[in-house]
Amino acid sequence: MSAHSCAPRLDSGAESMASASGIQNSDKVQHSTFLPVEEFVRDHLTPQPKYWGARRSRWRKKTQRIEEATGAEYKMYSPICELLNAISKSTYEKYRNKNVELPYNNPIVFLDHHSVPSAHCDIGFKPVPDIVGVFASKEEIDSYTSIRNVYSDVPSYHIATFCEGKPKTISGADQAMRYTCQLLELRPDMPGVYGLCVNTKNYNIVWSDSSGPVTSAPIEWDDLKPLEAYIRSLYVPPKGHHLWDPTITSPTLLPLTECPDKKLKVHWNIKTEEREYKDCVRIHVGDGWGRRSTVFMHDDSSGNFAVIKDSFRDDRRRYEEASLLKHIHNEGTFPGVVRLIASGDVAGRDGSPIETARPYVKKEVDHRTKKRIVLGSRGCQLGAAKSMRDVLMAVYDGNEVLRALVNERDYLHRDVSMYNFLMYPEHAKNTLSAKGFYKNRPLFINDILKLDSKNEDRCCALFIDADNSALLEPFADVNEELAARTGTPRYIARAVASGQLITKLRMAKVYHTMPELEAKAKELYLKNYGQDTYDAYIDVAANIYHGSKFQEPSNAPPSFSHRPDHDVESLFWVLVFCVILALPLDADEELTQDFVDAWTVMETHAIVSDKTVDPRTYFLTIEKAGWEQMVHPKLSSLAGMMIKLADQIAPEYGYLNPPPKRDHLHEAFRRILLEQILDMEDNPIPLTPNVFRHPPPTPDGQDPVPRLKPTASNATGKESTSRKRKAEDSAKTERKSKSVKSTSVHSARYIND
């Protein structure tokens, strides 16, 4: 069997389509933009104190060995270390002699580390800079493995800076910038980092934080003043440059006992105003540039838990995740939504909020402030489902939660995806509001079917990650916010992906009436929701669809805005992906070409700037036989339901006049899903948890199509570490991802704004 684990892919994503930062993903940086040396030194390095004397003549002799190291690159490493260590030792002693408070009790030491990656990189990738600068004691350095002064096994959480060497006059600035991004991802306790790149002719200094990197122009070796300032800045950063987060401390290595290989995991202590959370495990790492969301899990000895999420929020954004969660839960705990325990800014060593160093520059530089929220909910992605009926029950409840949020709290999630729509929710102790549950909470499928539930709120679904959410308010700037495109490519609504109403498809103007129920489904509906609710959505007149008429647009179609039905469409794409990839229990994969084609469409979908037809339209046009070929044969009974849902999703409801009720599509989904859930009462179709069907690899062991990274805020779920496939395939097909391997965790992918 060659199925892939469907545990969440926790690699970082590209920047959001709604972002104006222009900062690229660390994998995509192509070229450096240099600042003039004088400007870089002035804005990003610590000036020399007046009481310091110059020793550059002695250090200048050390640079000659670097300039003479032509040919093999490795010949540069030893003289570079000698030079940097000489300046570092002198800098440390001068600061100590003046009783300047320093972050560590040891000088920073530069080590040749070019041959192996750093150790304990618990986020998947392992960078290999040529030289690493560590704040470590002599005993710690002696514990590193070294052969002829070339070190290995240096813990990633000891690395405070690095140097990349290049032979002759080759520039290493681009590579150095990528390393600064990776160092930000490795070190959650470092809001910003410095890096260095050198060749035989000159050197560049890099500053990097969540607003992106900035690099000095090349500096000739006969000018060592900037190099001295770089070393000074590692000890005493210049104003506005935060190198350390004092609230994240004491990294230690402890066994991750849930993992079968018993690998060590870095544990962190995190302080909030209310308390300290000890031995937190990092379960998600976002891009170093952008929102840079980092999520930790804290489990205590009593069985309780907390999820701590740090992120750098763009100061221009109208909405903040914590304030939106407070709004949702203000009148009582709202079922199906992640619960907020605490929130606030994160303060630096001087007590001021940790912010990015550079001021905002339109379309070039964001200014960001570090925020922290503590959450009391976690759950599993749909891939962990024990049965397909469980999936549909979670989708039913998710639809009801979205509907109630719109009707009761005027709230749009705007990024419903596999990553942040969860099932099997769990809530921490003592997180229920003093007001109890929200008084108008919706009826969930457990209520309809009179089933037991382990959760007081009786909800099978959980929505997390409100980073991209918005409120439906009658303000101009909110309308502008709702006109922005944001979402995860695979799941984003078609109109949102294109930034305009759907215009190029005939099906966009082919509407279907509200579904009607029969037999037991109708009986249960009327019993729980009432005849008035049922009748309010029935289309009784000709050419009436969801209570409205189609109106052919004039020359210009109505303007685009994110609507409640767009979130329902995203929920549909989540279900499509899950149904197509689901693997029934004890079954072979049964891969067909229709499956491979469907997988390719979903996996390669992107948010693009042109107005081409969305390739996912494929799923809205195929007939029953097509669905039966795409899904596993044991799931072919779902084909009828998927066609009914697709018929409701396909039209562009922006052309209806007057606009239909804002929960009209939720109502259609409620009816179709209820009918299917009842039909599966005797056959829930057991699934293989945490395993998805997956096309076979290419001959060279790669995925059949390139994987695209999501572009918007993502998820939280329990991740399985298993990756089941045939033994002979496993070594070839392990997917490379910047992920945090963990079990039973509230994980997340929160990425750029």
Automatic annotation (TrEMBL):
Residues 178-578 form the Fungal-type protein kinase domain. Residues 1-25, 685-753 are annotated as: Disordered. InterPro entries: Pkinase_fungal. Residues 720-737 have a biased composition (Basic and acidic residues). This is Fungal-type protein kinase domain-containing protein. The lineage of its organism: Eukaryota, Fungi, Dikarya, Basidiomycota, Agaricomycotina.
